[in-house]
Specification:
Protein name: ABC transporter ATP-binding protein
Oligomer: single chain
Order of helices and strands: EEEHEEHEHHHEHEHEE
CATH architecture: 3-Layer(aba) Sandwich
GO molecular function, one term: ATP hydrolysis activity
Bound molecules: adenosine-5'-triphosphate
Largest sheet: 6 strands, mixed
InterPro entries: AAA+_ATPase (IPR003593), ABC_transporter-like_ATP-bd (IPR003439), ABC_transporter-like_CS (IPR017871), ABC_transpr_LolD-like (IPR015854), MacB-like_ATP-bd (IPR017911), P-loop_NTPase (IPR027417)
CATH topology: Rossmann fold
Helix content: 25-40%
Keywords: ATP-binding, Cell inner membrane, Cell membrane, Membrane, Nucleotide-binding, Transport
CATH superfamily: P-loop containing nucleotide triphosphate hydrolases
Number of strands: 10
Family: Belongs to the ABC transporter superfamily. Macrolide exporter (TC 3.A.1.122) family.
Strand order of the largest sheet: 6-7-8-3-9-10
Structural class: alpha/beta
CATH class: Alpha Beta
Distance between the termini: 29 Å
Shape: globular
Radius of gyration: 17 Å
Length: 225
């Protein structure tokens, strides 16, 4: 039997009420992401990309439709079940790094592994290997404030992959970087994700970067084209 899709969204809906006005942001999104597949989510500002990633990331409620992660219906789970699903299967990269400021690069990649129950030595070895593959072997002891924007973002990528997630959710992961640095960081991100065999759903408005991924889907007026 083939392994289940890492994500399957069926008729996903989300609307917000603002000042008495109802905005329907997602109007019935359907999407399937296969294991190891890297999908670019394109759409103009305000089209609902972040809202869609929040749904898949199981970070918020309020969505209609069905969200399945690794073959499990998340919509039917209690909050602790969703937390476990998120911890076991998902990794996150945001536009801003959100690294722990008081910990250095290697610690930022080790800590999530310790939380997940991995032994310290093994976690350190893995963190070193991931950060070296991201070109940061010479920056392991640096804290976020001692790293460039591109380096900070690469550590954030390493942290997202630390626990071998089946799916990485990335919201404008290079949106805060200049074009040249964004290209380098994206290439390293894609290489690491491919090397680990993870799938990824990457929100961006950058067509050029989207073209480097396996498939492009577009959000338009609340549905995927
Ligand atoms: N908590 C909220 N309350 C009210 N409206 C919201 C809320 N979150 C998002 N929205 C609205 O939903 C729409 C989609 O927002 P979202 O952030 O998902 O878009 P996006 O495609 O990620 O945009 P960008 O590329 O600018 O990040 C916007 O019109 C936004 O104002």
């Amino acid at each position: 039997m083939s392994s289940p899709a890492v994500v399957r969204l069926t008729d996903l809906t989300r609307s917000f009420e603002q000042g008495g006005v109802r905005i329907e942001v997602l109007r019935g999104v359907n999407l399937t992401v296969a294991p190891g597949e890297i999908v670019a989510l394109l759409g103009p500002s305000g089209s609902g990309k972040s809202t869609m990633l929040q749904a898949v990331g199981l970070l918020e409620g309020g969505f209609g439709g069905k969200i399945e992660i690794a073959g499990i219906d998340a919509s039917a789970l209690p909050p602790e079940g969703r937390t476990k699903l998120r911890r076991d299967h998902l990794g996150f990269v945001y536009q801003f790094h959100h690294l722990l400021p008081d910990f250095n690069a290697i610690e930022n990649v080790v800590i999530p592994q310790l939380v997940a129950g991995r032994a310290k030595g093994e976690a350190e070895e893995r963190a070193r290997s991931i950060l070296s593959s991201l070109g940061l072997g010479h920056r392991l002891d640096h804290r976020p404030s001692q790293l460039s924007g591109g380096e900070q973002q690469r550590v954030a990528v390493g942290r997202a992959l630390a626990n071998q997630p089946q799916l990485v959710l990335a919201d404008e992961p290079t949106g805060n970087l200049d074009e040249h640095t964004a290209d380098i960081v994206l290439e390293q991100f894609l290489a690491l994700v491919r090397g680990e065999g993870s799938a990824a759903l990457v929100a961006t408005h950058n067509e050029r970067l989207a073209a480097r991924m396996d498939r492009v889907v577009r959000l338009h007026e609340g549905v995927l084209e």
